[in-house]
Request: fold
Amino acid sequence: MKILAVDLDGTLIEGDTFYDTAKQLLIRSPIKLLFGLAMAFGSKNLSKMYLSKQIDIDPSKLLYNQNVIDLIINHKKKGVKVVLVSGSSLLYVQKIAEYLMLFDGALGSDKKMNLTGKAKAKKLCQVYGKNGFDYVGNDFIDIEVWKHSSIAYVVTRNQRLVEMLEKIGMKYQIVDSNFVSKAKKSL
Reply:
């Protein structure tokens, strides 16, 4: 069975949960932020976990890419399983997945792994097999994941990123950004 794996930051939602929560913590408790950022020098995933325990997010207040949600809904209608997979804290990934009620699973960074780039590609290949998934992403770090996917759904206007995908012979489809405050998420 095919899987659609969807990235969170900059793809499904506008912004980056790590930086957004760091900004909030700067206002609330600069000392805790310094402690959390100091952890990033040793392990960015531990820093992400620490920040996610300090700052709670409200998924209803995030801006969602309606075009990505529409892509998810279209895949779900065809019987494709959809998983939210992100380098963000697993706590945030699960919370957003539960809020949207569109996902069959959620994978995120935890105490053991920063789920980005090669680590994300490795995890998806372990769980779903090489070329056993399509991947929706938005950034250069996602190239490592796209290399192991069947189709690259690319949320970008960055021509250089598109040219790199063409250079490696990747089959891709552009998904335009359309971030809205109240995403239509019904099947």
